[in-house]
Amino acid sequence: MLTAATSKNQTLEAEMIEFTLRRPAETRLQVPDINKDARALQKLQKPFCLWLTGLPGAGKSTIANLLEKQLSASGRHTYVLDGDNVRQGLSRDLGFSEADRVENIRRAMEVACLFVDAGLVVIVSFISPYRAERDLARSRFAPDEFVEVYVDAPLGECERRDPKGLYAKARRGELVNFTGIDSDYQPPEAPEIRLDTVAKSPDECVDLILSYLDSKAFHRAAVSESTNGRSLRMAD
Ligand SMILES: Nc1ncnc2c1ncn2[C@@H]1O[C@H](COP(=O)(O)OP(=O)(O)OP(=O)(O)O)[C@@H](O)[C@H]1O
Ligand SMILES: [Mg+2]
Questions:
Q1: How far is Cα 128 from Cα 33, in angstroms, rounded to an integer?
Q2: Which position among 128, 183, 211, 231 bears the catalytic label?
């Protein structure tokens, strides 16, 4: 029989386990001497995060891949965090419930933060269906380090493309919680860049992103400033 005392003991035990497993208050932020600026200078680039969001099949992975090739060819140190790849490793324990999607985005956001801190240009290619989670991601970066890119295609077009055959599966009822069918997608209200992937080819979409980055001095200007600073120091 469960008495008040045993019930209280169980509560205490649960609290102790919680305390043992979660102790963020006892951690101290370590500030290494080799910081983000030093790592960025070594790479001669300004680190930042491009966050691609859109319906399944809208073109995020296609554009992320082409964009990374262009950035890499021009000397940028990059990394693509693709939703599918992250779900095969870091997030393999997660499903597609609302709570799991939120946690999936939190992990992507934290990894992107670490990679930006490492001095990289990070391209996140995640459906990231919820506005609140994308806003939370934005808030983890400095204002000049986060660019939200809405990879836009109407649901009908994404379903027609259906590159992985998942819309067809969802329509047959073989997949539940599929974004666009029985799970919500909330389009960005004020993304830095909106790509109309019906009107524009993948290459044109990448050009639009590169033009935006140029216009905001996101990469080339920052690199030449760093280069000047470095060569001065080296000449000394
Ligand atoms: N302008 C465009 N930009 C990107 N992809 C396009 C464009 N026009 C047509 N496509 C085609 O649309 C499909 C997009 O598939 P892709 O895997 O990139 O989508 P995704 O947004 O990453 O989907 P998922 O969220 O399921 O991973 C590809 O077959 C691609 O060739
Ligand atoms: Mg993809």
A1: 34
A2: 128
Residue identified by tokens 């006892």 is 26
- The domain 36-234 is placed in CATH, from the list 3.40.630.40, 3.30.460.10, 3.40.50.300, 3.40.50.11540, at 3.40.50.300
Q: Is the dihedral of CA 87, 93, 97, 99 positive or negative?
A: negative
Ligand 1 binding residues, C-beta < 6 A: 54, 56-63, 83-84, 127, 161, 163-164, 197, 200-202, 205
Instruction: Report how far residue 168's alpha carbon sits from residue 16's, in angstroms, rounded to the nearest whole number.
Output: 48
Burial bucket for residue 94 (CB in 10 Å: 0-12, 13-18, 19+): middle
Tokens of 63: 């554009």
In whole angstroms, give the CA distance from residue 78 to residue 62: 16
Digit-coded pLDDT (tens) for 88-118: 999 999 999 999 999 999 999 999 999 999 9
SS3 196: strand
Q: How many CB atoms lie within 10 A of CB 43?
A: 18
Interval 137-192: pLDDT, tens: 999 999 999 999 999 999 999 999 999 999 999 999 999 999 999 999 999 999 99
Q: Is 176 helix (H, G, I), strand (E, B) or coil?
A: coil
Nearest CA to ligand 1 atom 29: 163
Kindly state the DSSP code that residue 216 receives in the 8-state scheme.
T
Q: Measured from the CA of 195, which atom of ligand 1 is nearest?
A: 1
20: Cα within 13 Å, side-chain hemisphere: 6
Told to judge if 215 belongs to the known catalytic residues of this protein, a careful annotator would answer no
